[in-house]
Amino acid sequence: MYESPLFWPSHWEDKTLMVLDETLIPSKLKYIPVRKVSDAVDVIKTMKTRAFGQFLVVLNAFILEMNHVSAKSKVTLKHIETVAQLLNASRPTFPFAEVTGIIVGVAQKASASGADVRGPVTKTVDGFLQGIRQRRLERVRQLALSIQGGDNILTHCNVSGELAMACAMAKAQGKKIKVFATETRPYLQGAKLTVWELQEAGIPVTLVADNAVGSLMAEKLVNKVVIGSDRSAANGDIANKVGSYQIAVLAHEFDIPLIALTQPSNKVPAGKDMPIEQRSPLEVLLYERKRLFPSGVEAYYPGFDVVPHQLIKKAITIHAGL
Amino acid sequence: MYESPLFWPSHWEDKTLMVLDETLIPSKLKYIPVRKVSDAVDVIKTMKTRAFGQFLVVLNAFILEMNHVSAKSKVTLKHIETVAQLLNASRPTFPFAEVTGIIVGVAQKASASGADVRGPVTKTVDGFLQGIRQRRLERVRQLALSIQGGDNILTHCNVSGELAMACAMAKAQGKKIKVFATETRPYLQGAKLTVWELQEAGIPVTLVADNAVGSLMAEKLVNKVVIGSDRSAANGDIANKVGSYQIAVLAHEFDIPLIALTQPSNKVPAGKDMPIEQRSPLEVLLYERKRLFPSGVEAYYPGFDVVPHQLIKKAITIHAGL
């Protein structure tokens, strides 16, 4: 089975977490050495890693911290709480606190009974990672089953390997499919990551400007939309990369089913309760580190927008556990 | 009154037509010398000039051709017809034939009566240019009247100076306004031209990614949309820069009035009858002449899309005459 490097974008080399630098794709496949928690926060904030890659870094950051406490010393609740706080503050839209809260809970329980928290925390992190891997693979299989031969699929941003893997699986099942990927300005994740991994997976892919979505639908060139989600609310609303909302409105207008890959979440009741991160205007004003636009101009760049559940035809969710 | 360089982006220097190179803005304000008809076709095809600038070049191309015929020789119908054919073939979506057809008609009439066509063609072109200037200034005045104090206007691509001039006029009328400009990928006319000229006109402007339109509307940050049109149909449908259609659908969804600057046209019955130019995929795949994306990937880039008249709240049209 084809596995995209974006599906599991980090791995350990001894005590260093090697994190795929997603900003260098497709030019280079390079891993950044992450040795301590501040490095972990840094790769998240600067979006060197993103989407699922961030969750891997969040979970593994606890291991990084514990590696710095000598085997003879105790890992304390304080260590774990400090790591959690740093991670929670890194990006507002992401529910990192839902994950870190569980780890802190495990540490509190161990700490209350006087035990070293190292063992229970390590076991919990490992369990999470193994479980989430299996559940994501199951989501890929479900998505592959939702894809029919002859489908022309529109996608936005990047779904961390799952769409490319589902397409490869569907292709192996004898289904002939084609994908249209939006550029996804300003970061161009669609053009750089999605186009690249679909090519790697041997799936025909066509790049379109974000402006061409209405045209594509009006010309009946796509019959299905697949997007991921960065966060889900209890009512089924999701937050995803900015632009998802307008694609969903257009898909609804044209009666094109929208499939969202989601995660269960009951921490926020609805989309309006999810804080939307405002990224730096410079991320719109600069392009490949070059300033493109006049100085003194303002820019508005919400990192995400909310797709209300009414616009989602089918949600393929990851089963509970994380 | 403030006049944007984009409102009238070419002028004569002796027998050379100097055409503003809109692809270099905002870095440079540079004019390209256009000495013969093939140069004129070239600046149109390569989009060095665009929108209204193209019509100026189309009309003036006849003068360029006649300048090459010595004053002692006759300008023939054949000269005029050849110019018209070259111009008509340059960009499919634009109704250049509607303009060149009139010029050819004038030449035919003069030719039939045995006269030199030089005089009648020159007079017709000059008359057109003077007339269209007055009518466009009137459209600017009408647009300024449609702008209210407190308006937050979203615009897409570039309306050849008219929006910037109307905003400057509205500001002089004491109205406080703000404009949001989309980037308008792949050519970035919004970011490069619209942002620049609004800054020149002293109007607060905020740049947004094309993906942020849905967000802007959902957050109630804009209350009016103003776009131009590259072509109008008899039923009121318009063709405009790709992305206009999806903005119109979203504006309708949020009950935000969309104002379109249009021209009268009865040559095509409806939007579906307007041919849509497919630009080169390279224009999506390259960015500032640098290849951004993997080789071997396809791209889909319709230059325009159609906004159906049902989605246009108010059309400010240029009065007949061209």
Blueprint (SSEs and pairs):
The structure is a homodimer of 322-residue chains.
Chain A: E1 10-13, E2 16-20, E3 31-34, H1 37-45, H2 52-67, H3 77-88, H4 96-112, H5 118-146, E4 152-155, H6 162-172, E5 178-182, H7 189-200, E6 205-208, H8 213-218, E7 224-227, E8 231-232, E9 238-241, H9 244-253, E10 258-262, H10 282-285, E11 286-287, E12 290-291, E13 298-300, E14 304-307, E15 314-317
Parallel strand pairs in A: 4-5, 4-7, 5-6, 7-10, 10-15
Antiparallel strand pairs in A: 1-2, 2-3, 8-9, 9-14, 11-12
Helix pairs in contact in A: 1-2, 2-3, 2-5, 3-4, 4-5, 5-6
Structural key phrases:
homodimer; alpha/beta; Four Helix Bundle (Hemerythrin (Met), subunit A); 2 domains; six-stranded parallel sheet
Strand content of chain A: 15-25%
> Quick one: biggest sheet of chain A?
6 strands, parallel
Quaternary organisation of the protein chains: homodimer
User: Mean pLDDT of chain A, as a whole number?
Assistant: 93
Q: Structural class of the secondary elements of chain A?
A: alpha/beta
Tally of structural domains of chain A: 2
Give the helix proportion of chain A (percent range).
Answer: 25-40%
Could you give the count of β-strands of chain A?
15
Q: CATH superfamily name of the largest domain in chain A?
A: Translation initiation factor eif-2b, domain 2
Q: What order do the strands of the largest sheet of chain A run in, or round the barrel if closed? A: 6-5-4-7-10-15
User: What name does the CATH topology of the largest domain in chain A carry?
Assistant: Rossmann fold
How far from one another are the termini of chain A?
Answer: 25 Å
Which regions of chain A are unreliable across 5 or more consecutive residues at pLDDT < 50? none
Radius of gyration of chain A: 20 Å
Q: Which chain pair has the greatest contact? A: A-B, 56 and 56 residues
